[in-house]
Design goal:
The chain is built from 19 helices and 21 strands. It is of the alpha/beta class and 542 residues long. It has three domains: 235 residues, TIM Barrel, CATH 3.20.20; 44 residues, no CATH class; 242 residues, Spore Coat Polysaccharide Biosynthesis Protein SpsA, Chain A. The structure holds sulfopyruvate and magnesium ion (MG).
């Protein structure tokens, strides 16, 4: 049912109905979940939650913005405390239009002058709006509404301002005649007498609304007997919030601990429940089919690092600090920044010294007598979904991983096409590809044909160097596991490395695509590399 119709039904119900104050989406939801059939959008509470005064310090557009959150969060109607309508009849027309657009059930306006003051602050000194002008405002609002069921409640402040019952009744009748759907009679007395006297005289000419903040001890039965249509509990959630927040803040401050308050405050899961977190998780299953979400990473970090004996006497190569941060931490951080949180590190040599905060450690116990594929086998369970496999001594610029994850291919390798520096005898991981890097082409489709340490494999020239980074997605993961199983059957399995696996994939017809880069990475093979790595990590040398 439309919220406007729900509110209209509440006003015309043959029982006394009740609505409770809320001041934001969360409190509105709490009101609904407590069982209320409507919400009072209290001007006092809306402004108080922002620590501003109930003097129209909150602009009306700010009020409407908050109401939108409240309305989105709930399925029961909101009756907005619209103060004076934020101006004259014309402002009222625009307000009604905007409230209807935001799904608000109705608005209550009071016969005071803009900017108003809360009725409980020097009420008797407050000036009332001229009756005719206020009737014009009601009429303008009614004429502006598009939805027949949108309700306008006219609030009479004559008792608050000390004008007495007769004036209150005179105004009530005028507002009723002007088209108000209900009238609200307000009082600041601690006894309900003047409100009840009004109710008796009013005799249900149209629905009557009250706000028993000051005469709160009146038994609810009395309101029923006086045929009050709607009772507004006007400010009790903001007040409850103040008490609870103050007690919690003081306790935490005094005890410098959370122990005393933990059992007193809502759990974080309760916050998630109120926010509807479960719905999002369900929706993600349907709509967020990005493979990136389930990506995993495997970091091969079992080796000690040849030629770095001094530095690796008590830790593996990945734990050597580079510009204040270990190589492994840099890798883990890079993956996490990419949203890849399922990270497995395969350790071996001095695995006790590996800090795997944020990652999982699996151990290749036979690291001394085995090579990379045995290490990779230790992490098989982690090869799921979209898997990125990297060497643990790799430093690279962030965009490389970013592009790797974006590219659509079952198998993908990163190849550096910058001129090869083989002078120092480093012929490892040369990549032979179906085409050379054509930098003019974005995401050109190139396939890998072989990784080799020969400079002239098949009488060809290498197109670059594989940097030690591989991604398997979807069926690519199955191909990878298949190839690994085939190689496991070979007698020399313990001597094989990842290039052997890649070459087997190619031989099986599962050719990886090539993502070319030009520089922007390095691996650490010796002490000189380590010196360069500091500069690289600090961006001084790409
Ligand atoms: C409000 O809740 O903002 C009201 C009711 O207008 S009262 O504060 O009692 O005036
Ligand atoms: Mg108010």
């Amino acid at each position: 049912m439309k919220k406007t119709t729900q509110l209209k039904n509440l006003l015309h119900s043959d029982r006394t109905e009740f609505i409770l104050e809320a001041h934001n989406g969360l409190s509105a939801k709490i009101v609904e979940q407590a069982g209320f059939k409507g919400i009072w959008g209290s001007g006092l509470a809306l402004s108080a939650q922002h620590a501003v005064r109930d003097n129209n310090e909150l602009s009306w557009t700010q009020v409407v913005e908050i109401l939108e959150f409240m309305s989105d969060a709930t399925s029961i109607p909101i009756l907005l405390d619209g103060d004076t309508g934020y101006g004259d009849f014309n402002n009222m027309r625009r307000l009604v239009a905007k409230l209807e657009q935001r799904g608000i059930g109705g608005v209550c306006i009071e016969d005071k002058l803009f900017p108003k003051t809360n009725s409980f602050i020097q009420g008797e000194q407050q000036e009332l709006e001229d009756t005719d002008a206020f009737c014009g405002k009601i009429q303008a609002g009614k004429d502006a509404q598009m939805d027949d069921d949108f309700c306008i409640v006219a609030r009479i402040e004559a008792l608050i301002a000390g004008w007495g019952l007769e004036e209150a009744l005179r105004r009530g009748e005028a507002y009723h005649q002007a088209g108000a759907d209900a009238v609200l009679i307000h009082s600041k007395q601690s006894r309900p007498d003047e409100v009840l006297a009004f109710a008796r005289e009013w005799d249900n000419r149209c629905p009557l609304v009250i706000v028993p903040t000051k005469y709160y001890s009146t038994p609810t039965e009395v309101f029923r007997e006086h045929r009050i249509s709607l009772v507004i509990w006007a400010n009790h959630l903001i007040r409850a919030g103040i008490t609870a927040m103050r007690a919690t803040a003081e306790s935490i401050h005094e005890s410098e601990s959370l122990v005393d308050v933990e059992g007193q405050v809502a759990t974080v899961s309760e916050i998630f429940r109120l926010q509807g977190a479960d719905e999002l998780l369900e929706a993600e299953k349907i709509y967020a089919r990005s493979a990136r979400q389930e990506a995993t990473a495997v970091i091969l970090a079992a080796s000690r690092g040849r030629g770095m004996d001094e530095l690796t006497s008590d830790r593996p190569k990945v734990m050597i600090p580079v510009a204040g941060k270990t190589v492994l931490r840099r890798l883990v951080d890079k993956f996490k920044a990419q949203g890849i949180n399922d990270i497995t590190v395969v350790g071996g040599y001095r695995n006790d010294a590996i800090d795997v905060l944020g990652a999982r450690l699996v151990i290749n116990e036979d690291w001394e007598n085995s090579d990379e594929l045995i290490s990779l086998s230790c992490a098989l369970e982690s090869v799921s979904g979209d898997t990125v496999l990297v060497y643990g001594d790799l430093l690279f610029r962030t965009y490389i991983l970013n592009n790797l994850m974006d590219w659509d291919a079952d198998l993908l390798v990163v190849v550096d096409s910058s001129p090869l520096d083989t002078a120092q005898g480093n012929k490892n991981d040369l990549a032979y590809c179906s085409a050379a890097d054509d930098r003019a082409m974005y995401q050109q489709k190139v396939s890998l044909e072989q990784i080799s340490s020969e400079m002239d494999w098949n009488d060809r020239k290498p197109a670059g160097r594989w940097i030690g980074m591989l991604r398997a997605r979807g069926p690519g993961r199955t191909y990878l596991l298949e190839a690994l199983e085939q190689l496991r059957a070979q007698a020399n399995f313990s001597e094989l490395g990842v290039p052997d696996l890649v070459n087997r994939l190619i031989a099986n017809g599962h050719v990886p695509q090539v993502q070319y880069i030009s520089g922007h990475w390095m691996d650490i093979n010796n002490v000189e590399d380590l010196a360069r790595a500091g500069d690289f990590a600090q961006g001084r040398n790409s």
